[in-house]
Amino acid sequence: MSDPQEKRLTHLDETGKAVMVDVTEKDVTDRIAVCEGAVTMEPETLAMIVAGQAKKGDVIATARLAGIMAAKRTHELIPLCHPLALTKVAVDIEADESLPGLKVTAMARVASRTGVEMEALTAVSVACLTIYDMAKAVDRGMTISGIRLIEKSGGKSGDYRAKD
């Protein structure tokens, strides 16, 4: 059996107060996180976006940029996150007619004492929200779903890969 202390929330001090985790003693390692999400929409909305005919401009390029910018500001959005000097953020957005909609994938990388899961999750979330914002005038029924960590590597807790 594993130590029950290993599974406790780490953002709480010994008195139960929320604190920023002290990562001073952790080793600097290369850390990567990949996350995904999706925006489901009407087939006509997807066709409009893919054809570049949205009145607000290039939805996919704008959402990609918004996701990258959001990852860089995660510590300003999520309480208790450490500010990180990200070495890479990539956001990919692909049409998926089986949804119908857009699949969003983000990868964040850093050499640090703490991981980048929150940065990759923030990138996906903001990219999805940007897609919704830019197309909501024609399709208010869009849904954002499936935002999750797919994989991570580096750090004390080891590697993780989601089960499909």
TrEMBL record:
It comes from the Bacteria. The active site is at D133. InterPro entries: MoaC, MoaC_bact/euk, MoaC_sf, MoCo_biosynth_MoaA/MoaC, Mopterin_CF_biosynth-C_dom. It comes from Hartmannibacter diazotrophicus. Its EC number is 4.6.1.17. GO terms for molecular function: cyclic pyranopterin monophosphate synthase activity. The keyword Lyase applies. Belongs to the MoaC family. CDD domains: MoaC_PE (cd01420). GO terms for biological process: Mo-molybdopterin cofactor biosynthetic process. Catalyzes the conversion of (8S)-3',8-cyclo-7,8-dihydroguanosine 5'-triphosphate to cyclic pyranopterin monophosphate (cPMP). Transmembrane segments: none annotated. It catalyses: (8S)-3',8-cyclo-7,8-dihydroguanosine 5'-triphosphate = cyclic pyranopterin phosphate + diphosphate. Pathway: Cofactor biosynthesis; molybdopterin biosynthesis. Keywords: Lyase, Molybdenum cofactor biosynthesis. SUPFAM superfamilies: Molybdenum cofactor biosynthesis protein C, MoaC. This is Cyclic pyranopterin monophosphate synthase. Pfam families: MoaC (PF01967). Substrate binds at L80, C81, H82, M118, E119. Homohexamer; trimer of dimers.
